[in-house]
Design goal:
The chain contains 18 helices and 26 strands. By secondary structure, it is an alpha+beta fold. Strands 17-26-25-18-19-24-20-23 form an eight-stranded mixed beta sheet, sandwiched between helices. It has a six-stranded mixed beta sheet with strand order 3-2-1-4-8-6. Strands 9, 10, 11, 12, 15 and 16 form a six-stranded mixed beta sheet that branches. The longest helix is centred in the middle third of the chain and has 27 residues. The radius of gyration is 24 Å and the shape is globular. It starts with 5 loop residues before the first strand and ends with a strand. About 7% of the residues have low confidence.
């Protein structure tokens, strides 16, 4: 039996990225966008593939297989499939390249072969051996990221639920997982045309925002409106399938039909009322769907992934359901999580095949990206003529906490490994005093330029959760929303001003000891155990990846200071 099983995961469409898994442990995961400074970058993630080897300190020769997401429309003859439980098949690279005519195809044959050839070029360039290539279907990868990272033991039964706008022709799936296996329930797949996520994205586009990447703005807008002003119209668009309670049904026919009819259906309705009604209906259908699933299976633990589960208000509604005992939401529920999910799925299959007992390792933090040493930071400061303006502190975290406590200043924090997923969670974050209501306007004017209705989120000391959250839970990934207590004046700038909810990150020493030290330093000066936290980036740009990105953001914004490793640089007034 092989001691180590090491898998390279690759996702090639929007939010492209790569990951390395070894023996069930995530060693590295990063998206291409931050590295090349293109938000939601798509295509083959050359830089990400190269970078995960650097992060994991793994030689390419150690890779046992490559898990590839996002090559739809290929069907392989069953007699070639070694592992039919992994998407369509598992094939040797040599067979794919030497026998292209053996592939059965739906369409786009040449397009798909071109993609395979491109991957071979990239692997050759990076000196990665062309070993086994495992194709993992989109929703299988989502399901894998949810189940294998969930906090429960292997022998426990878990409902695994995926939901998004679309991926490989599907928009939602339901599976039962136990003992490392994920078995999709028959007739539980909702196709693209009946997508609940597609409905929400279509409304988002109708409201003048981006279909694929702005649904969170619709969620943020919703509390400003009255859902009753548009709910009857919204209900006409989508429902639970009357013949199959595990699926959704688009009452218009196709997503295109929804988009074509929205202007007629919603003419004269205020945009905030439309957002409010859409959010209410999205939550209603999501919770009804999950109740149906639990009723059918009698399994009360759920693991969720897919872009729909970035809707923190819906996640809150799910958590409140009496029919479930516990829920896990993958922190990279969007497509940034696919490379990890695919690699985990591949690992479990290969381990089982080779006679190894696979490891299921619950997620304890999501800092899987690049880190930079103080020496590297020092060189970048020299390149920008900033070294003479920088102060070096052995205890930089206490200094940062004091800085934001003693002023109305905003600071960009660049420390340790980069976060995996869409949220800045302390290591690539802009932070400030959340009790100051003027901070919101200042941050937006200084750097973020967010839509006026979009709130920021707080980082809260885990030990102070009950002080600020009603029925609060440990929530380190900003993936859940909670109502706030009467102590909400401490986080005025980090709650939604209309419904008084917040999307918190709880912080303790196990999760992020250096960031906890920042909050404790702030608490010692103010008695408040909470600060404002938003991702470290300019408007329209991805989260900063390296010291250069951080310094460029500092220079091109009105940030008051940046903390780079142990260096603190303040702007002169």
């Amino acid at each position: 039996m092989k001691k180590n099983i090491t898998i390279l995961g690759i996702h090639i469409f929007h939010d492209a990225g790569a990951a390395i898994i070894q023996n069930g442990q995530v060693l590295a995961a990063i998206s291409e966008g931050p590295i090349i400074n293109v938000k939601h970058a798509s295509g083959y993630p050359l830089k990400s593939i190269e970078e995960v080897f650097n992060i994991a300190k793994i030689d390419p020769s150690e890779i046992d297989a490559i898990a590839l997401v996002g090559i739809p429309n290929l069907k392989f003859p069953k007699h070639f499939a070694r592992y039919p439980n992994i998407s369509d098949s598992v094939l040797e690279w040599s067979w794919i390249t030497s026998n292209p005519k053996g592939l059965e195809i739906n369409y786009s044959y040449l397009h798909q072969i071109e993609k395979i050839e491109k991957l071979r070029e990239i692997l050759n360039k990076l000196n990665i051996p062309l070993k086994e290539i495992i194709f993992v279907e989109h929703h299988t990868a989502h399901a894998s990221s949810a189940y294998y990272l969930s906090p429960w033991n292997m022998d426990e039964e878990v409902l695994v639920i995926t939901s998004d706008a679309a991926g490989d022709g599907l928009s939602s799936t339901v599976s039962i997982a136990s003992n490392g296996k994920i078995d999709r329930i028959k007739n539980s797949e909702t196709n693209y045309g009946d997508s609940l996520g597609g409905f929400y994205s279509s409304v988002t586009e109708y409201l003048g925002m981006d279909y694929g990447f702005d649904p969170f703005k619709t969620m943020g807008l919703a509390p400003y409106g009255n859902p009753e002003k548009a709910i009857n119209e919204i209900k006409k668009i989508i429902q639970i399938n009357p013949q199959n309670p595990l699926c959704f049904q688009n009452k218009f026919g196709t997503i295109h039909d929804i988009q074509q009819n929205l202007s007629k259906l919603l003419r004269g309705k205020r945009f905030d009322h439309i957002a409010a009604a859409s959010q209410l209906w999205f939550e209603t259908l999501t919770t009804e769907w999950i109740q149906n699933i639990v009723k059918k299976t009698d399994i009360r633990k759920i693991a969720c992934a897919g872009g729909a589960f970035l809707n923190v208000k819906a996640n809150r509604s799910i958590l409140s359901l009496e029919c479930i005992d516990d829920a896990f939401f993958c922190p990279a529920s969007n497509d940034e999580g696919l490379a990890v999910g695919a690699a985990l799925r591949c690992y479990f299959e290969i381990a089982s095949r080779d006679g190894n007992k696979p490891n299921k390792i619950p997620l304890t933090n999501n800092y899987f990206g690049t880190s930079f040493t103080n020496e590297q930071i020092k060189e970048e400061l020299k390149n920008h003529d900033l070294l003479d303006k920088a102060e070096f502190f052995d205890d930089i975290d206490s200094e940062v906490g004091e800085f934001i406590a003693n002023s109305e200043k905003i600071l960009g924090r660049f420390s340790g490994q980069m976060e995996w997923g869409p949220r800045g969670l302390g290591n690539r974050s802009i932070i400030a005093d959340s009790s100051n209501p003027n901070i919101v306007r200042k941050i937006n004017k200084a750097i973020k330029m967010r839509d006026f209705w979009m709130p920021f989120g707080p980082s809260i000391l885990a030990s102070r959760t009950d002080d600020y959250l009603i029925d609060g839970k440990i929530s380190p990934y900003m993936i859940l929303a909670f109502d706030t207590t009467d102590n909400r004046n401490d986080l005025t700038a980090a709650i939604h001003p209309y419904d008084l909810t917040c999307r918190p990150q709880t912080v303790d020493s196990d999760y992020n000891p250096t960031y906890e030290k920042v909050l404790k330093s702030f608490e010692s000066k103010t008695s408040r155990g909470v600060i404002l936290n938003t991702s470290f980036n300019l408007h329209g740009s991805p989260i900063v990846w390296n010291p250069k990105n951080a310094i460029d953001t500092f220079n091109n914004s009105k940030l008051d200071a940046i903390a780079l490793g142990n260096y603190l640089i303040k702007k002169s007034n």
